[in-house]
Amino acid sequence: MRIIAGQRRGHKIDGPKATAALRPTSDLVRESLFNMVGEMMPGRTAVDLFAGTGAIGLEALSRGAEAAIFVEKNRESVALIHGNVARLRYQDRAQVRLADAYRWVRTHEWAADQPVAVFLDPPYKEYEDHAKKIRELLDQLVERLPAESLIALEAGRTLDGEILPDFEAWDVRRYGDTQVAIRVFPGPEGEEDAESSDSKTGTEGPSEEAGNV
User: Fold this and answer.
1) 74, 97 contact by CB (below 8 A)
2) What whole-number distance in Å separates Cα of residue 86 and Cα of residue 80?
3) What are the Cα distances from residue 205, in Å, to 67, 175, 199?
4) In this predicted model, what pLDDT tens digit does every residue of 2-61 receive, in sequence order?
5) What HEC string does 133-161 produce?
6) Are 6 and 63 in contact (CB under 8 A)?
7) What does the alpha-carbon distance between residue 40 and residue 113 come to, in Å, rounded to a whole number?
8) What is the pTM assigned to this prediction?
9) Please, where are the H alpha helices in 38-149?
10) 117 - beta bridge partners?
11) What enzyme category does the UniProt record give (predicted)?
């Protein structure tokens, strides 16, 4: 695994082999995701939920995010994130939280004047076992995130549209067996983020299919 672009481009990230519990986002999917939202990172805090290796939050930092919060409940994964943060020398801009993502979102106080980029990559089994909890988590984010924030959700090939609040507001793209759903929130005057150049998101990366699926 490696950082795709930005300040730490090409730097390697430690990561275990993928398992049912820990399935790191592939470099291809991460590149495609950040081709869409990478230009939106400056001025935002990245929040990496179900952080795993921390690759998503680290990529966001490399591309200019002001800070990153990593939320992960597995102690071994948290240790891995700490190691990757140190390897890339981002200790002064990173916070690592040993916490359950669902509980953390319920209790976290969002600063009204600080837009965030929230990335969610739950284990795919969560969609089978806890789809209702994921929907509730997304509902909470939609209701409480500051203006000009964004949400990026990663899921498997089959993504139930019912899990996304106000489905038509999401830009859903497929990359092989992975789907990514992105929602960008308007600014205080109700306009889409000025940096968006393509409907809801920026330039599309390598993709097998694009559009709502």
Assistant:
1) no
2) 10
3) 24, 9, 15
4) 999 999 999 999 987 655 455 566 778 899 999 999 999 999 999 999 999 999 999 999
5) HHHHHHHHHHHHCCCCCEEEEEEECCCCH
6) yes
7) 16
8) 0.84
9) 55-62, 75-87, 101-107, 124-129, 131-144
10) 46, 150
11) transferase
Two tokens at 173? 């793209």
pLDDT of residue 148: 96
By the 8 A CB rule, do 175 and 208 touch?
Answer: yes
Look at residues 170, 114, 103, 110 and name the one whose alpha carbon lies nearest to residue 137: 103
Amino acid of residue 67: A
| Residue with tokens 């940096």, as numbered in its chain | 195
The per-residue b/e assignment along 25-44, b for 16 or more CB within 10 angstroms, e otherwise, is bbeebbbbbbbbbbbbbeeb
Q: Is 107 exposed, middle or buried (0-12, 13-18, 19+ CB in 10 A)?
A: exposed
Task: Report the alpha-carbon angle 122-128-134, nearest 5.
Answer: 50
Conformational region of residue 118, where left means phi above 0, alpha means psi within -120 to 50, and beta covers everything else: beta
Degrees, nearest 5: CA angle 150-212-53: 50
Q: Which residue ranges form the domains of the chain, and what is each CATH number?
A: 27-184 (3.40.50.150)
Lookup result for tokens 């495609």: 32
